[in-house]
Amino acid sequence: MSESLNRQPSLSEKVAEITGISVNKCYQCGKCSAGCPVANDMDYSPSLIMRMLQTDDPQEEEKILRSYSIWLCLSCEMCYCRCPMSIDIPSIMDALRQKAYSEKKVNPKAKKIIAFHESFLDSIKWTGRLYEIGLVATYKLKTLDLLKDVELAPKMYLKGKLNILPEKMHGLKNVSGLFKKSK
Amino acid sequence: MPLAVYPGCSLTGSSREYMESVEQILKTFEIPYTFVEDWNCCGATAAHNLNRKVAEALPARIIALAEKQGADEILVPCAACYNRLKSSQKKMDEDKVLKGQLSEMVGMPLDNGIKILNVLEVIEQSIVPKLNEKIQAPLNFKAACYYGCLLVRPGNVLNFDREEDPQSMDRIVEILGATPVKWSFKTECCGAGFTVSRTDIVSRLSGDILIDAVEHGAQALIVACPMCHANLDMRRKDIEKATGRKFDIPVIYLTQAIGMALGIDHQKLGLNRHFVPVSI
Predict the structure, then answer these.
(1) Are the C-beta atoms of B253 and B223 separated by less than 8 Å?
(2) What is the pLDDT, as a whole number, of residue A5?
(3) CB contacts, 8 Å: B205 with chain A
(4) Which among A88, A121, A148 is the nearest to B51, CB-wise?
(5) pTM above 0.80, yes or no
(6) How many alpha carbons lie under 13 Å from residue A182 in its C-beta half-sphere?
């Protein structure tokens, strides 16, 4: 009795606490995986992730957090739209990503995807808005992928699509403060 | 109260032609509007991937700013921003504690009652009734209306159009004189935010969209999302490399298509900014 009271909550319980969604509703019809545009690139398909969560097996949970799948999810919401049990899988993916990220368990293959997200958030923190040149520069520094899209920027500039300097906003402190308050 | 407009980052940067054409048609139909003052980024995909609190707080600040200006309605032309704002609004609606926390975080009162509208809703509501009489140059081509993901999904958050076979853009395009084609990729994902980090996936998914549009006889793609536009237009070379096919099909924002039918100068609609020439 006391053992069951003291045990650590499982990953599915933590997901339920954050999102309010129970993975136990999933009956493995596989529609999510069939409709997912990146299921073939994933190490575990969306329906398999749901099944692994249902097991509450710590080894399976570790595999999920260290999977590439959770970072490949594009949040296109197709799985949620087609799920006969209306399970909000994209929100579950968000919760899993944040857990993997905060516990430093991210899949090494996801390095570039995460570098892009981090560079994007850095731009908001520093300027309040997305500063596209800054985003790409930060991304390149993080990934050392220096030659990526070098031919794109001059063309964008000629088409008048690039701001050379970041836009200024008055409430920058307020916006940067949101990042501090979120901790 | 005049309509508040939240441009978002893309529409002041790499997709400014979308904003240019939105403003052109708002002016033509004499719809008064003001921009949300001192707006910030909505957080996009990055925020909800890495930081839940920030992902809700950034849209909450935008909602609070628009409400402070006294607006009852806010137009969000970018499908991704629209999706983030609607999502935060619903979360705050369902969780008053969260709403209180976010109000405190952004340092502003939050009524959260403002109506968040996408570009199609504003067009249907305020432009369609007067559209026929203003058309000068009917569009004489077959168009594939491409809605993408974030304009229509998730349905229970956006409550807008069908999630997989939406119709609103097709109806508008038909009024403009174009023939909307029936095709299968209306709401398939273009690869969205992976444009830099996994360009190969974007090229494949966007390539599938172009192939299906062309094979159904479309002569132009009509879009309402700057991410979809960027992937289908600016990534055209990558798409051609990935698919081994050549594509001439232009990608036009719905607001640009409306402007074209109204006879507005193409430069004013920003059509000259596209990578794939619009010669249709």
Answers:
(1) yes
(2) 67
(3) 37
(4) A121
(5) yes
(6) 20
